[in-house]
Amino acid sequence: MKASDSAITSSSIGTFDTVTLFGDSRTCSSFSTTVQVILRRRLNKLAFLPKPCFKTFMGNWGFLPLENDAALDWNADLFQANQLEGRVKASLELDIQEQPEAVRAAAHLVGVLVSNGIWPDDSKAKFIDLAADRLSQMLAEEVFTNVGFVAAIRSEIRLLHDLSKSQSHDGFQR
User: Fold this and answer.
1) What is the pLDDT of residue 40?
2) Least confident segment among 20-34, 61-75, 108-122, 160-174
3) Partners of residue 68 on adjacent β-strands
4) Nearest-CA neighbor of 36 among 24, 18, 61?
5) CA angle in degrees (0–180, nearest 5) for 98-100-106
6) Mean pLDDT over residues 113-118, rounded?
7) How far apart are the C-alpha atoms of 109 and 118, rounded to whole Å?
8) Between residues 97 and 12, which one has the greater pLDDT?
9) Does an H or E element contain 26, and which?
10) Which residues of 26-54 are buried (b: 16+ CB within 10 A; e: fewer)?
11) Given a cut of 70, is residue 172 above it in pLDDT?
12) What single string gives the DSSP state of each residue in 114-145?
């Protein structure tokens, strides 16, 4: 068996016009979009730098679920329909002596949604700061005295501060 029979190869480094897949050479456009993506990833792992040979549609800029205009519109509609920002803000503003778990859960949700690119850009900095402030206040008022809880909350605050720094340096509006 030849090397080209058992591997994916490109016709030349830096191009992706012809692909040899298990000994069968084809032009890039003869593969489905999904296969082209898989091939591109495999070639990248082999240290090739292929040019993309897949079609992109207007409003798409990547392969991830939220890397297109329609998905971001859907996400914004979801936040508005469920009044998610208002509910999270209300939870963050609860009395931390009476409902510390709800405040902490809301702060965690902010961190998760921001770090995964789901929280709307126009309010993420405000919510990151509010969540970090509320957790810091929780520590200052010694709501939790258990060493494990204190360490976990400090870790959550660091995550939120790191997110805040990354948001201020990524070119997005703060």
Assistant:
1) 56
2) 20-34
3) 60
4) 18
5) 130
6) 89
7) 11
8) 97
9) strand 24-27
10) eebeebeeeebeebbebbeeeebebeebb
11) no
12) HHTT-S-TTTHHHHHHHHHHHHHHHHHTTS--
pLDDT at residue 5 is higher than 60: no
> Where would I find the beta strands (DSSP E) of 47-174?
none
Asked if residue 124 lies in contact with residue 114, where contact means CB atoms within 8 angstroms, the answer is: yes
Token pair in block for residue 150: 């204190």
Report the run of H or E that residue 27 belongs to, with start and end. strand 24-27
For 26-41, the pLDDT digits (tens) are 454 555 555 555 555 5
Confidence of residue 124 (pLDDT cuts 50, 70, 90): very high
Q: Long-range contact list for 152-157, CB < 8 A, 24+ apart?
A: 153/104, 156/104, 156/107, 156/108, 156/111, 157/132
- Give 60's strand partners: 68
Instruction: Point out which residues pair with 25 in neighbouring strands.
Output: 20
Tracing tokens 């008022």 back to the chain, one arrives at 141
Task: State the Cα–Cα distance between residues 11 and 27, nearest whole angstrom.
Answer: 10
